[in-house]
Each structure stands twice: as structure tokens, then as C-alpha cells.
Amino acid sequence: MSDQTMPPQHQPRQPGREGAMHPEPVYIAPGYRGSGKLQGKVALITGADSGIGRAVALHFALEGAYLALAYLDEHDDARHTLEEVERAGAEAAMFAGDLARESFCNEIIDAVVQRWGHIDVLVNNAGEQHPTERLEDIPQEQWERTFSTNMFSMFMLTKAALPHMQAGGAIINTTSITAYKGNPVLLDYSATKGAITSFTRSLAMNLAERGIRVNGVAPGPIWTPLIPSTFDEESVAQFGADTPMGRPGQPSEVAPAFVYLACDDASYVSGQVLHVNGGVVVNG
């Protein structure tokens, strides 16, 4: 195929596994050097076992943050992430469970506060997607599950975290290019990302008087385990080919946007979304 960007591949279950991907994602760009932008900050990152979440964790580690890393059940990938952030010099803790359960969200926050006393940065990144050609073929259970994982968990975790955040804190939500341009086979996923974008803007206004900034990052096609576990081999082989840059992005190319929004460099930035999508112009 002239527009092939990746070797054809598919994984039979979600969440995908990073170790089964070829090539594996790039999590730290060669030459990236931390400069203490998050020194001593306590950051909670969801979906941190692999993909964008792992890249954010590694960059935060290099910037000096303490890390609480939440994931579903990808234990091998999560152990790898923990090893990498500790190798980068970070103190970190892992939490496995379903963020669609309010009790788990509360458990994470309680554990983080017990260990570090407060939360400075909350990164709501966990998500799932299920391609379906026709709206009539989307089961009610799938629609509710996608919203529970992608959107409701964000509400529950943020609600639990806010009492432990102070002025100067930052909340960063992972939305998507699909919130702006749609996707014909990701109807429920795109709807959640639209909700996340609106939630981000509204919450930013709500928390401005408390000195807590709220922003989002809207990735385009990024090479993560979610991709081969979501799409068929042919779609994976052409992943990202329709961007102006003609390729998918790597997690290492998204994570610095999270660093910027988490640190004081973005002290006058709230209610905004950074578009890391290979050159697609949206929301213009």
C-alpha cells in the first residue's frame, strides 16, 4: 500500500498491550532533558500503563514530579512504566482498578493524600473506544460503558481530588480530534470527547477564582496500544496517513504539551485545548 504507515496488525482484546505492538511506541524523544518544571509536585495520571499516559508519566518524572499512576488491568505494561519512571528518578505508586467505579476513584485519592498530603496536578487520560459502523448496532451497554470510562470517571475523580488541590494546581483532560471533526465509526467515543471538551471549558471558568487551571489536549492519530486493539489490520496499516504530515504521532510528541499545561509556564492559560494532531486545522 502506498499510504502504509505501520505494519498490519491487530490485538484481540482491549485494552491493548504495548509489548505486542510492532514497532513499539516512542515514549521519550531523543535529547529530551528535564529542567525541574514540576519539581516536588504531586501528579495523578490515569491510563498511565502505556500510550500517552506512560509518556506523560515519564516526562513528569524527568521534570521532578511525584507520581500516582492509575490503570485498569494491564499489569505487565504498568510494571514497565513503574520501572521506567523510577529509573528516571521519580517516586511513584501504581493503582489498578476500574475508574468507572466511584469507590475506586475515591480510593486512589485517599491513598495519594495519605502518602503525599495533597495533589498538584490531575491528568484525566484513561479512555476506551469501540468502532461500530451503524448507530443502530451500538448496544446500550457499550454506549454507557464508553461514557462511564471516558467521561463519568473524569467527573468522579476530579470531584474527589478538588478538596486536596490548592491555588496553582492544574487539571489536564485528554480529549480528541474527534471532538472537533467527528468520526463516522466512533460515535460514542466522539460524543464523550465532545463532552470532555465542554467540561474542560466550563470547569476552567468554575475554578478560576480558586486559582486552579483546567485545560485539555486533543491528540490526533497517536501510536498507542489502543490502536491495534481497536482497528483491523488494514486500518492500522494506514493509521495517520490522512494527516498533513502523512504519519501517526508518537506518545513522545504529545507528552510535552501536558508538561507545559501542568507547569508554571502556562500560568495564564486555562479553558484551552492544545491540538497535537499532525497538522489538521480544527476549531479555527
Structural class: alpha/beta
Helix content class: 25-40%
Gap between N and C termini: 33 Å
CATH architecture descriptor text: 3-Layer(aba) Sandwich
CATH topology: Rossmann fold
What is the fourth-level CATH superfamily? NAD(P)-binding Rossmann-like Domain
Largest sheet: 7 strands, parallel
Radius of gyration: 18 Å
Q: Tell me, what is the CATH class?
A: Alpha Beta
Bulk shape:
globular
How many domains? The number is 1
Strand content: 5-15%
Strand order of the largest sheet: 3-2-1-4-5-6-7
Region (Disordered): 1-26
Family: Belongs to the short-chain dehydrogenases/reductases (SDR) family.
Biased composition (Polar residues): 1-12
InterPro entries: NAD(P)-bd_dom_sf, Sc_DH/Rdtase_CS, SDR_fam
What's the structural blueprint in terms of helices and strands?
Layout lengths: L41 E5 L4 H12 L3 E6 L3 H13 L4 E5 L5 H15 L4 E4 L15 H22 L8 E5 L3 H4 L5 H21 L5 E7 L13 H5 L13 H12 L10 E4 L8
Parallel strand pairs: 1-2, 1-4, 2-3, 4-5, 5-6, 6-7
Helix pairs in contact: 1-2, 1-8, 3-4, 4-6
List key phrases describing it:
seven-stranded parallel beta sheet; globular; 8 helices; single chain; alpha/beta; 284 residues; Rossmann fold
